Amino acid sequence: MQARDENIGAEPLHASGEPLSHEYPQDDPAPGAGQTAGTRSLADDLEALVEDARIYVDAELSYQKTRAGFVADRLKKTVAFGAVAAFLAVLALIGLTVGLIIALTPLITAWGATAVVVLGILLIAYLLVRKAAAAWNSMMGAMKENEDPADHG
After folding, report:
1. Where are the alpha helices (DSSP H) in the chain?
2. Torsion over CA of 103, 109, 114 and 116, rounded to 10 degrees?
3. Please, is 20 exposed, middle or buried when counting C-beta atoms within 10 Å of its C-beta (0-12, 13-18, 19+)?
4. What is the DSSP letter of 37?
5. 151 partner at 20 to 30 Å CA-CA among 51, 110, 128, 132?
6. ∠3-6-10 over CA atoms, to 5°?
7. Average pLDDT over the chain, rounded to whole?
8. DSSP 56-70
9. d(CA 76, CA 82)
């Protein structure tokens, strides 16, 4: 272990320059205060295990709280930017609609241009609703295939 520390240029973690007796010191049972490894009881080991479990649970809860806070922050930003983008897209579509009406007015009068633009938008909306309904039906069909007939009677 000490040779490895010298290879990377780091100081050894133990104060003395003597080599460690075990390659993996974390596997050695840690004696309690004033006890040697041979005099520890099962109760002491269980007490240490419970303490380690409590520390682990506390660390895990702290990690998950931090993670949840990060996700909540990113979700708020995503919703805010998405809402602004949707608002700007609606404004652009309104501008396009008005522009089309103005552009078509000399050709087919103001009422005719308004009718053509509105009917065009309604046609696009109808086609999108049909596509949405087809996607919904496809999803519902997939859900029904996964259900067991015995569940319903």
Report:
1. 2-8, 42-146
2. -90
3. middle
4. G
5. 132
6. 130
7. 82
8. HHHHHHHHHHHHHHH
9. 10
